[in-house]
Amino acid sequence: MQTPADRPAPETAERLERLNRLANTMDSLFRVPGTSINVGLDSIVGLIPGIGDTLALLPAGYIIASAAHMGVPRRTLLRMGLNTGVDTLIGSIPLIGDLFDIGWKGNRRNVALLRKHLEGEGALAEAPATRDVEDRMASPRPVPDRPVEMPPNAPRLY
User: Fold this and answer.
1) Does residue 153 lie in a domain region?
2) Looking at the DSSP assignment, which residues form a beta bridge with residue 39?
3) What is the dihedral of CA 7, 10, 12, 13, to 10 degrees?
4) pTM attached to this predicted model
5) Would 47 be classed as within a structural domain?
6) Phi/psi of residue 31, each to 5°?
7) Would you say 77 and 67 are in contact if contact means Cβ atoms under 8 Å apart?
8) Is the separation of the CB atoms in 40 and 25 below 8 Å?
9) Tag placement on the chain: N or C end, fewer CB within 10 Å?
10) Does a structural domain hold residue 22?
11) Which domain holds residue 113?
12) Alpha helices in the chain (DSSP H)
């Protein structure tokens, strides 16, 4: 079995990007109009009494199983399981759990833990930062590589 260090960086980066898309779909798919609040399918499916939170466990379990397959240490897997457990336990409380789901974003937390591990192992070192490039291309105006320094005599707008 290959470890993340043996696996080519582009393949690992592609798997991580797929898991990231899944986490974003579950936790941040839609923006509530007029706010900066994002909700995903986890919050929406969680509104279904009885089975909603159980259905939301499937993608969360897939993210954790993928992380285990990619060589994440047991301690990190336990943290991921704790994130999912908290999401499921509190999310199962009617109304309070639905509001909690909007802020907790357990799937995104788990993918962030996976990314941190892979970066620490050097498994992503050679992979291009595709998310950064995509964000720049989607931006209506160019995003500078570094903060823009204003001249000292420029008027302040705040």
Assistant:
1) no
2) 30
3) 160
4) 0.71
5) yes
6) -100, 130
7) yes
8) yes
9) C
10) yes
11) 9-138
12) 9-27, 41-45, 52-69, 74-91, 96-104, 106-121, 130-138
